[in-house]
Every structure is written in structure tokens, then in C-alpha cells.
Design brief:
Length: 275
């Protein structure tokens, strides 16, 4: 008898069928284009498998077959014009990845490399605009069926991506930290409950940086995270893995009166396969 207990990832149901719909960034209706998340240039594009985070736990991983792509993790959720807009910042994401990779290799391979804190120049506006754009695009293609409505969490992010530099100044904080894993995580919306406080957040993690967007002044972020201000000229990345248990999703200890809730089709993990 064959093994009939393998399920197909829910990503199949949430991936694009006809390629038309509302852009999840500018809300225009028309042909949708594929957005690579992580963007091209910041990872080596290979055969990739996608699945939901809820299908990637120790208990669920081997029971679910993921969605395969020959050329990277893709989402057909944005219009051509928004895709072009994100590609401007993708150059900056790629430059940072290419500059940091040899520095990180040197740190882990050389016994004489003592300083774990690395500093690199960044064009924060370009970088942040593109990272937030990819957070918005890495979602269920079902979202493209309806025009987006004004929402306190997502609308400022959309306006920021479309060019308003001040759109998120009063609504969102951004944090980042060193992320040393091969698997990529995009979680567009996570509700985090901490001792009576509920906070909405979004996470986009791919080597070598985890990028977290949270509601302003809610104070929920990992202890090792650094806050990114739009005026920053440098990134500071601590390569020491002293907080190793809390680097990946959900990145904080879920003890006591803490929990998180996800809309699972919005929280996706992808990873290179067959290498
Ligand atoms: Zn658009």
C-alpha cells in the first residue's frame, strides 16, 4: 500500500491562477507580476519549496508536500509598476548581502576574528521601502481578489512603499538582527499577545538579516534586535549567536502569558532544495 498520509501545502490553493487582480501595494486592477521574495540578487536563485509556517513544525513537516518553484520563491500579487518600484531598493538589498557575506564568512572561519559587531553603510530609505514592499507582496494571491480598504496597520506601509517617506513615522517601528539560516520566512501579519497587550507585526527574514515591522511603541521585539531609524546611515549587525534560540520565528520565548496568532496563509517559509 502506498503512503496516502501526505497532504499538499495550502500554498497551492493560495497561489495565482489567472494572473489578474488588485495589486496589494497600490490597489490598481490589472495584470499581476511575480515578485521574488527574497529578491533576486540577495539570494542565489535555485529550485525552491514553499509552505506555510504552520506546515513546517517538527510534527507537520514530513506530512505536507510543499509548492515547488524552479527559480526562487515567488508571489504574483503586485502590478508591474510596483514591481519596478521595489527593484530600485532590491539593488540596495543585494549590495548589503554581497558586502556582508564575506565579512560573515571571515568571522566564522577565522580564529583571530574577535569582534562580532559589524558595521556597514546603508541607504535606509531604499532598503526599507523595498523590504516593506516584499512583506506586503509575500502573501496569499487570494488577497488580490478584492481592493484593499483603509487599515491602520497596512495603509501607512502601502503609502511608504509608494513614496511617502513620513507615512510610517507615527505608526510603525522597525527592528533587525543577524539571521544565519538558509530558510526564508515571510510573515505578513502576526498577532503577538504579551501580558495583556496585543501587537500586530510583520517579519521578513532571509540571510543575513531578519527584518521586523511592529506597531509603534508597543515595545515587543527580541532582546538582541536593533532599531532601524529612517535616518540611519549604518547597519550594526552582531554576529554572535548568544541568543541563538530566539533568532528565527517566533523569535521570543513563548512562556507565561505570551502567545502568538497567525492567519496561516499569510505566513510562509521557503528554502532551497536539491543542492
Ligand atoms: Zn501596484
Amino acid at each position: 500500500m502506498g503512503n496516502f498520509s501526505i497532504n499538499i501545502s495550502k500554498r497551492f490553493a493560495h497561489s495565482s491562477k489567472n494572473g489578474r487582480g488588485y495589486c496589494v501595494i497600490c490597489s490598481s486592477y490589472g495584470d499581476l507580476s511575480f515578485d521574488h521574495v527574497p529578491p533576486q540578487g540577495s539570494v542565489i536563485i535555485t529550485k525552491t519549496e514553499q509552505r506555510l509556517i504552520t506546515e513546517s513544525t517538527v510534527d507537520t513537516f514530513h506530512k505536507v508536500k510543499g509548492l515547488m518553484s524552479k527559480n526562487g520563491s515567488k508571489f504574483r500579487t503586485i502590478c508591474k509598476s510596483c514591481n519596478g518600484l521595489l527593484s530600485l531598493g532590491d539593488n540596495e538589498i543585494a549590495r548589503i548581502y554581497q558586502s556582508l557575506t564575506p565579512v560573515i564568512r571571515q568571522y566564522f572561519e577565522s580564529p583571530f576574528e574577535l569582534y562580532s559587531l559589524k558595521k556597514i553603510r546603508i541607504d535606509t530609505k531604499k532598503y526599507t521601502r523595498s523590504m516593506i514592499g516584499h512583506i506586503l507582496s509575500a502573501t496569499s494571491e487570494e488577497e488580490c481578489k478584492a481592493e484593499s480598504i483603509e487599515a491602520p496597520y497596512f495603509s501607512p506601509l502601502q503609502r511608504f512603499v509608494l513614496g511617502d517617506d513620513n507615512a510610517i513615522a507615527d505608526t510603525h517601528d522597525i527592528y533587525y538582527w543577524f539571521y544565519p539560516f538558509r530558510r526564508h520566512i515571510s510573515a505578513k501579519m502576526v498577532g503577538f499577545y504579551n501580558n495583556g497587550h496585543l501587537c500586530t507585526m510583520s517579519l521578513l527574514s532571509f540571510f543575513p538579516i531578519a527584518f521586523l515591522v511592529v506597531e509603534k511603541n508597543k515595545g515587543i521585539y527580541p532582546a538582541h534586535a536593533k532599531r532601524l531609524e529612517i535616518t540611519d546611515e549604518f547597519l550594526f549587525l552582531d554576529l554572535s549567536l548568544s541568543n541563538h534560540a530566539y533568532i528565527t520565528f517566533p523569535f521570543v520565548e513563548l512562556t507565561g502569558n505570551r502567545m502568538y496568532a497567525v492567519k496561516d496563509e499569510l505566513c510562509i517559509v521557503s528554502y532551497p532544495v536539491g543542492q
